[in-house]
Amino acid sequence: MGKHSYGVVLDAGSSGTRVYVYRWLKAAHARADASQEALSHLPEIKTKKKWRKKVHPGVSTYGEKPEDIGGEHLKPLIEFAQDIVPKDEVVNTPIFLLATAGMRLLPDHQRETVLANICGYFQKETKFLLPDCGLHVQVIPGETEGLYGWIAANYLLGGFDAPKAHDHGKGHSTYGFLDMGGASAQIAFAPNATETERHANDLKLLRLRKVSGEALEYKVFVTTWLGFGANEARRRYVEALQESYPKMGELPDPCLPVGLRVDATGAEIAKGAMAESSLIGTGKFTECLKRTNPLLEKDAPCDDQPCLLNGVHTPAIDFDVNHFVGVSEYWHTTHELFAMAHKDKAYDFTTYQKQVTDLCSRQWTDIQKDVASDKWGNKVDERTVEEVCFKASWLINMLHDGIGVPRVGIETGGAGNEMHANKTKAVVDGAKDRGFLDPFQAVDKIDGTEVSWTLGKMVLYASSQMPAAASALAVGFGSNEPGVAMPEDFQFPSSKLPIISNGTAGTEVEGQDWHDRLLSSSYTRRVPGIVIFLVILALAVYLLFGRERRFSFLGRSSPNTGANRRKQPGTLSSKLFGQPGPAYERVMEDGNPDDEFELASVSSLDGTSGEPNAPRSGRTSGWATPAHRGLSPDQSRSSPKSKSYVDNASAMASHTSIPNGLGVSAFERSGLGARTESKERLTLAPALSKTARSRAGSPRRSPLPYKANVD
């Protein structure tokens, strides 16, 4: 086994599924010779660009044909992951498929069927660790997606590992997180102390664990705004535009470059082509900002003050200490065209708005020439430029009028932002050197690692793999209920064991997950006691089986026990393990010496001697009834298996065979007639040795009349 652990996460979005593979040091290796600083960090997660792969379309397109999702969609992703994870680590590598917006829109029965088929494919076709399909394969809500993103951003920026180096004031060291996709947008941040106390019930309790086993605990606000993603906002915008010009077939659109003609979906209409309804670009970006602003729904009723957008409650944001990073559309819209050569350039409102205004006011035919000449790089196509004017206006409105991010160079959010009052240069370089102290910064990668919510999921899981300190609670997240360490909705990174105790120091933690239970020091200290208890329990059960059953079991389980091996009678081992002593007699009920007889013993399991051709004779019933071995004289002399039975004269006399065909057991019949028949048959048996003795308490016996054939 290697020193690294691996994890696989599939991000099942609306347009496709992307697999990510992550790696980190196992606890023993991470702790070996680690400095105090290293022990105080979270596990170090590694990934590479070549460790991710995407396929199209999304899993939600399999709602009508869920049985095809394995072979058509998942197979190439699984094979890709299996090529990266070492073969001997696959069985220890957890796999997660977490679906987002597209799957949320499917009918319930289709969604459940798709998830069931995904789970079945993983279980049948892979050896990845999948202890709980319901937890490893699921549709996650927007709030969970936002929380994972918040974990990823703060993990990469260092807010968890080096809080003093990221002190934003008032003891605050974490960063806020903004994400915008096509259908929805999310926000996640840790409010200041005043807002945390005021809105405690609105926060999520998040618990991580350092390499040392000590817990890190945060209280985070997370919410999602459905319909506020870039594509859904565009759809709502077009509907509002059509209502503004109800009788016009061609609608003037200030959010398109001059002369660009598109349909309601945003697809370009070729020059000269006829269309029932179309939008024609006017390139007036200032008017575009005004038309997109009402889409924020700032006037929607707010039942739980304060609210930001669409009447959704959000604690007040203190921009003195809350500095946000934005991913997805926040980064693509601000950097793909306007800062393509400077990926780490800071967002500056004044400069950005001027750049967008200049681009959108140009003729579309001129812009097409720039695209053809790769002015913005070969990854920027015409559709990207077509959409940038609307997306830029929507982003600016969301950031500044919606969320309230101060406009650097124009507005300040408090004393912490006064340093930015005079920064009006085009783009502020070296954002990371300032520790992202601007109110907002768009990012795609930090130190070469993509800021993805899938990384946040893996940070949560990897930290749960670190053995817990004695008082550390379980890793995961749930509702923040004051005074409650483990809320009922607490979600673990993977499967959990049943609740054992109440979470006090030095005991198993209530709701602690299965990794924590097995790896925690308190559990480990109890292992010897558990082992001793199990040994005593097994011994008690073994003794209750009875000597004959124990002997039968041993005879079947080992070639050197039971019928093929004898120990001297009277030893402790024979009493414990059921190995029989010397043959003894069974006294008949009437006590008549003439009716007494004795049989040599055979295995009580099947009545055979263990030899291939031995006759089935001497079968008995009852616990202590001896059985007949059924060995022929030749077998007794020559068979290696019978050697132990003829080592002394007494044993030879006791195990002399009954001739073939005469070894029918008296106990296969019943009643007095059976005993009489047995007596008649046994007159042919060999005489007992003079040294043979009855067990204590048996009536004195006289030999049965028998004439031995001395020839």
From TrEMBL:
Superkingdom to which the source organism belongs: Eukaryota
Low complexity bias: start-end ranges: 694-703
Active-site residues per Swiss-Prot or TrEMBL entry: 145 (proton acceptor)
GO molecular function annotation: ATP binding; GDP phosphatase activity; ribonucleoside triphosphate phosphatase activity; UDP phosphatase activity
Entry keyword annotation includes Transmembrane: yes
Composition-biased stretches (Polar residues): 601-611, 633-649
Keyword annotations of the record: ATP-binding, Hydrolase, Membrane, Nucleotide-binding, Transmembrane, Transmembrane helix
Residues that, per the record, bind ATP: 182-186
Region annotation (Disordered) ranges: 555-649, 673-711
InterPro entries tied to this protein: GDA1_CD39_NTPase (IPR000407)
Keyword Transcription on entry: no
Name recorded for this polypeptide: Golgi apyrase
